[in-house]
Specification:
The protein has 185 residues and is mainly alpha-helical. The protein is built from nine helices and two strands. Strands 1-2 form a two-stranded antiparallel sheet. The longest helix is centred in the C-terminal third of the chain and has 22 residues. The mean pLDDT is 94.
Length: 185
């Protein structure tokens, strides 16, 4: 687990250097995108801190990588939608309540995706709707439902605060969609 989560941390500096002095090809970025989204969707160990072992932080580390990958000029609308979907898997986690700032790290990644301004209003609206924990409760215990609801609510609040002063498109609409989602909870 620790090898997986800390290996993801290699991506942000590589992607940052590539933005300054491009050396990665489109195919390289596509491979990184595929592997990162697969990792986000499949990683089951979402502990922030593991007693006796230290930091694990898979969702936060993966969100940091998403934040850098989303800035690649090779990332197009469909790619950004896939990144949002993969982040949704972590936002709607039910096995643990996030308490180690995972919400902030994921929100920063989402803000970066939104700043690209490649997504359409319906993409963003559908994504926010997909965060509704009521659609994911079948077979879950009350504890799991409560943790998932908490994770989603705290994430949406954090995202709202992160974009509260953003004036560019699409942030005004996103703020409205977030408030609507929070009012449903």
């Amino acid at each position: 687990m620790f090898t997986r989560t800390f290996s993801v941390l290699l991506l942000p500096p590589i992607l940052s250097v590539d933005r300054q002095r491009p050396f990665l090809k489109k195919e390289d970025i596509e491979v990184i995108h595929h592997r990162l989204t697969t990792y986000l969707e499949r990683e089951k160990d979402v502990r922030g801190y593991a007693d006796e072992k230290g930091w694990a932080h898979a969702p936060a580390h993966a969100a940091d990588a998403v934040e850098d990958l989303a800035q690649s000029p090779y990332m197009e609308r469909a790619d950004l939608r896939e990144l949002l979907h993969a982040l949704t898997v972590k936002i709607t986690e039910s096995s643990v309540a996030y308490i180690y700032d995972e919400d902030q790290r994921i929100a920063h990644a989402v803000v970066t995706i939104l700043r690209r301004n490649l997504l359409e209003q319906n993409d963003i609206s559908s994504w926010i709707d997909s965060l509704n924990p009521n659609d994911k409760t079948e077979g879950k215990s009350l504890l799991e439902i409560s943790q998932m609801s908490l994770n989603v609510r705290v994430f949406l609040q954090t995202l709202y605060l992160a974009i509260r002063t953003e004036e560019a498109e699409p942030f005004q609409a996103v703020r409205s969609l977030i408030l609507q989602a929070l009012e449903k909870k």
